[in-house]
Amino acid sequence: MISFTTKISRTTFSSKRVRIPDGPSLQDFIETDNPNDAMERYRIQMKLEANAKRLRLPPWLKRTIPSMDNTNFTHLKKQVKKLKLATVCEEARCPNIEECWSGSKDVPSTATIMLMGDTCTRGCNNTSRTQPRSM
């Protein structure tokens, strides 16, 4: 019997992802005898300050908002519009569209194209997109 095996190389981007800086990890809560000890280390002020409209996020949870001036992002957006393609990212109004479309030196730009135009083929009713015709 002859068998053929092929090795499929996989590219994982988990090592390339940006981690939330200085925040508590699951390990912090597991290693301590009392989980409250880990929470005490990351205690923040959880009351509304004077003249404040809302509670502030802890510094380890804040992220910088990327600028929309990114050349990769604008180039991909222009290409998608020029080719009259519908993307899942735009149709679902994804808040992370800039991360995927801009890419970086190590991570390629990605966009998920909808093959049936703006008609979503998923069975959920969570979006405001055009539903597919019944068969």
UniProtKB/TrEMBL annotation:
Subcellular location, principal: mitochondrion
Q: Which GO terms describe its molecular function?
A: 4 iron, 4 sulfur cluster binding; lipoate synthase activity
Keywords, A to Z, come to:
4Fe-4S, Iron, Iron-sulfur, Metal-binding
PANTHER family linked: LIPOYL SYNTHASE, LIPOYL SYNTHASE, MITOCHONDRIAL
Its protein name is LIAS_N domain-containing protein
Cofactor(s) essential for the protein: [4Fe-4S] cluster
Read off the Pfam families from this record: LIAS_N
User: Is Metal-binding given among the entry's keywords?
Assistant: yes
Q: Where would I find the Lipoyl synthase N-terminal domain in this sequence?
A: 6-94
Give any Gene Ontology cellular component: mitochondrion
Instruction: Name where it's found.
Output: Mitochondrion
Note whether Metal-binding occurs among the keywords.
yes
